[in-house]
């Protein structure tokens, strides 16, 4: 409920306090029942690394802590409007190896900030989580319970109160203090919740060094994207000039010549018109091909799932396809993902010598993840050719990443990620075939 919706009215303030009190109690439970066990388990797992147990126990512990930290980031944004960027480095493609996964986690500075946060949040989460509810509850207790206790103790209540008794002063003081705490606790409840969100941001957001590296990456990405866009526009212009435009010019000349010959040599004019019709069909096919290179119709009609399955069917070798997408991404993201998969599959067909390939596309943790692999010869190097570099530039424009694992002898596994949100599932046009 926003201020414009009347949150400054008494009903709105009470509603906001109630939400902050419930959410604060949730923070209390997490800080005591989850943070403490995870911190202890992380410390114990780290100590057990020399004997090998920690190699297998520490990664899932740190990933569970990372999941808890991500949940706190979401709550901070949703409950208090405090955005906390996710600072983690991308997972390497060979992270199934426990030693590689452990190294990836331990080399990430955000991991150590998560561990520190899990410890410091124990007292901070307890204090700031209890305050929204505790102030109001204690205040109400002072207003309602103190007179009852005075009656039980024997100080009396009403017009015959013995004014010279200290109990009167204490009771009145309790009522006044309780009323003040209640009046202050209702509007302060959301502020305590926001204070906890700000505390989370101080430990869970990227460091200054990480932000500087991020700015540098975005600067380089923007430059590469501008260059790639300019190159793409030049390619389209060249294809139009050398292909469809040349054919349309020739078509116009043939029609004009046929008009002149129609009076003197109808048979020759007829041949020119036949040639013009064939040239128009060829030009139309080239224009359709150019349009498919910009945004394939199957992608617009059937989404990324239909587009990827169509790509798999066009490959001259068996391809296992697993796609789990509960919705659709925005059109530019779908287009980038489609062409990235298309380029990888083209490399598989041309260079890998593979007998089989596989594609796995799914959405998890706010990112679209695409894995393309093959059982070919391996040895793929993104630095050796322009194809994979082009994919990196295409994905980088959307803050995406690509990791390649391709040892000599294979297999080759290319993992691509695009941060995005999915919309609700759309009803796709029915089709009899893929």
TrEMBL record:
Q: Which residues form the Signal transduction histidine kinase subgroup 3 dimerisation and phosphoacceptor domain?
A: 232-299
Q: What is its EC number?
A: 2.7.13.3
- Keywords tagged on the record: ATP-binding, Kinase, Membrane, Nucleotide-binding, Phosphoprotein, Transferase, Transmembrane, Transmembrane helix, Two-component regulatory system
Q: Where are the transmembrane segments?
A: 38-65, 115-140, 166-188
Asked if the keyword Phosphoprotein belongs to this entry, the reply reads yes
The answer to keyword Cell membrane applying to this record is no
Reactions catalysed: ATP + protein L-histidine = ADP + protein N-phospho-L-histidine
Where does the Putative sensor domain lie?
28-204
PANTHER family linked:
NITRATE/NITRITE SENSOR PROTEIN NARX-RELATED, NITRATE_NITRITE SENSOR PROTEIN NARQ
The protein's name is: histidine kinase
Origin species = Actinomadura fulvescens
């Amino acid at each position: 409920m926003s201020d414009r919706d009347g949150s400054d009215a008494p009903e709105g303030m009470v509603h906001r306090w109630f939400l902050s009190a419930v959410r604060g109690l949730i923070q209390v439970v997490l800080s005591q029942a989850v943070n403490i066990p995870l911190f202890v388990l992380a410390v114990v797992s780290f100590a057990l690394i020399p004997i090998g147990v920690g190699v297998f126990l520490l990664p899932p512990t740190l990933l569970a802590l990372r999941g808890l930290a991500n949940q706190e980031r979401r709550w901070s944004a949703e409950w208090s409007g405090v955005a906390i960027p996710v600072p983690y480095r991308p997972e390497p493609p060979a992270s199934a190896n426990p030693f590689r996964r452990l190294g990836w986690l331990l080399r990430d500075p955000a991991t150590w900030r998560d561990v520190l946060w899990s410890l410091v949040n124990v007292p901070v989460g307890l204090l700031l989580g209890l305050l929204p509810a505790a102030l109001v509850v204690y205040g109400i207790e002072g207003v309602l319970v103190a007179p009852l206790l005075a009656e039980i103790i024997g100080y009396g209540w009403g017009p015959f109160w013995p004014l010279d008794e200290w109990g009167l002063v204490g009771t009145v003081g309790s009522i006044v203090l309780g009323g003040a705490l209640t009046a202050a606790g209702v509007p302060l409840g959301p502020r305590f919740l926001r204070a906890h969100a700000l505390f989370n941001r101080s430990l869970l957001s990227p460091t200054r060094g990480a932000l500087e590296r991020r700015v540098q990456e975005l600067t380089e990405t923007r430059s590469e994207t501008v260059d790639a866009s300019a190159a793409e526009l030049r390619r389209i212009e060249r294809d139009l000039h050398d292909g469809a435009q040349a054919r349309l010019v020739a078509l116009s000349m043939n029609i004009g010549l046929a008009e002149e010959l129609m009076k003197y040599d109808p048979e020759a004019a007829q041949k020119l018109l036949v040639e013009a019709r064939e040239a128009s069909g060829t030009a139309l096919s080239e224009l359709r091909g150019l349009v498919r290179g910009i945004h394939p119709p199957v992608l617009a009609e059937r989404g990324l799932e239909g587009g990827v399955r169509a790509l798999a069917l066009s490959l001259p070798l068996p391809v296992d396809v697993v796609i789990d997408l509960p919705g659709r991404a925005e059109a530019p993201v779908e287009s980038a993902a489609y062409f990235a998969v298309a380029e990888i599959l083209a490399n598989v067909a041309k260079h890998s010598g593979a007998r089989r390939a596989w594609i796995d596309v799914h959405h998890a943790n706010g990112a679209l993840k695409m894995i393309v692999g093959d059982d070919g010869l391996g040895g793929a190097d993104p630095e050796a050719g322009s194809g994979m570099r082009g994919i990196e530039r295409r994905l980088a424009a959307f803050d995406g990443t690509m990791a390649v694992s391709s040892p000599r002898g294979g297999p080759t596994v290319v993992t691509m990620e695009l941060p995005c949100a999915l919309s609700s599932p759309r009803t796709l046009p029915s089709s009899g075939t893929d």
